[in-house]
Design goal:
Elements: H1 20-30, H2 40-54, H3 64-77, H4 95-108, H5 113-133, H6 143-167, H7 173-176, H8 179-195, H9 197-202, E1 204-207, E2 213-217, H10 218-250, H11 254-258, H12 263-283, E3 289-293, H13 299-308, E4 314-318
Antiparallel strand pairs: 1-2, 3-4
Length: about 325
């Protein structure tokens, strides 16, 4: 068997990202929780394979399937722009196990104020780590900016949850079960823009089709952040809308009345089942490598691109996750 061809483009995902199904297959691979079980040595081996291949050196005996596997292992643990190794719970492969636990507990313990505050705080702490880990671009973010985003999102989530909880006291129990979702949606609208505020100040890198960096754009950052907020809210809908309806029905049955301790694990299991599908499918709503027409960029950047690269009509950027 000869050496592997160097013509495979591993800068892009394996599947066609111009279609929803191609993006879905990509994100089912990226969010695979089994990637969390990989050792540090396995991650480093995958990084070496990918970096060597990008440098024009194919590992002897490497097959195409092994190359793609290494690429996805690398992508699951390292930031695409900075190359830094992500904290374990900040990786997209941790989304399902972490969110199923946190969301399941938010939906189970929604009746008492202390538990509402605690689980909203846990959720926003986790979200802060995920949003920072999966930010777009390589612009640094200060500790003060991190703290502001974290405190603001947590305060917003808790205030929304407690406010809606008090408003739904006299409404049917099923309505109260949807309070955690409203709080999560509100917090996403606060947390993600604040955690990525540096991008809104200095912009994110935009490139041509070949990947050549052309400058930084705040307009592209705004579009990317908006897409991520929509994806995150949509991601939460199945996991926070379907289980409450099922649990509201099951809790009226004798089976759960005699075994109330089953409520929490059953809720977590239902949430996990929803998230296994909702996480990759909602990540796939928008292309990871999004595009924007040059005419929609800031005047200064638009003029610079039209002067230096007059043939470029569309630029590309990493929208983040």
């Amino acid at each position: 068997m000869g050496d592997l061809s160097l013509d495979i483009n591993i800068q892009e995902p394996r599947w066609d990202q111009s279609t929803f199904m191609g993006r879905a297959r990509h994100f089912f691979t990226v969010t695979d929780p089994r990637n969390l079980l990989l050792s540090g040595a396995q991650l480093e081996a995958s990084r070496n394979i990918v970096q060597n291949y990008r440098a024009g050196v194919a590992t002897p005996g490497l097959t195409e399937d092994q190359l793609w596997r290494a690429k996805y292992v690398y992508d699951s643990a390292f930031h695409p722009d900075t190359g830094e190794k992500l904290i374990l719970i900040g990786r997209m492969s941790a989304q399902v196990p972490m969110n199923m636990t946190i969301t399941g507990c938010m939906l189970t313990f929604y009746r008492k104020t202390p538990t509402v505050v605690f689980w909203q705080w846990v959720n926003q702490s986790f979200n802060a780590i995920v949003n920072y880990s999966n930010r777009s671009g390589d612009a640094p973010i200060t500790v003060r900016q991190l703290g502001t985003a974290y405190v603001s999102a947590t305060t917003g989530a808790v205030a929304t949850a407690l406010g809606l909880k008090s408003l739904t006291k006299h409404l049917p129990p099923l309505v109260g079960r949807f309070v955690p979702f409203a709080a999560v949606a509100a917090a996403n609208c606060i947390n993600i823009p604040l955690m990525r505020q540096r991008e809104l100040q200095v912009g994110i890198p935009v490139t041509d089709e070949a990947g050549q960096r052309l400058g930084h754009s705040v307009t592209a950052a705004k579009q990317g952040i908006f897409q991520v907020v929509i994806s995150r809210i949509c991601m939460a809908i199945p996991a926070m809308a379907i289980p409450p309806v099922i649990m509201n029905t099951l809790e009226k049955k004798d089976f759960l009345k005699r075994r109330p301790w089953l409520g929490a694990p059953l809720q977590v299991g239902l949430v996990g089942f929803c998230l296994v599908f909702a996480t990759p499918l909602c990540c796939a709503l928008f292309p990871q490598r999004s595009s924007i027409h040059v005419t929609r960029l800031e005047p200064e950047l638009r003029a610079q691109i039209q002067e230096q690269n007059p043939s470029v009509e569309v630029v590309y950027y990493n929208k983040g996750l």
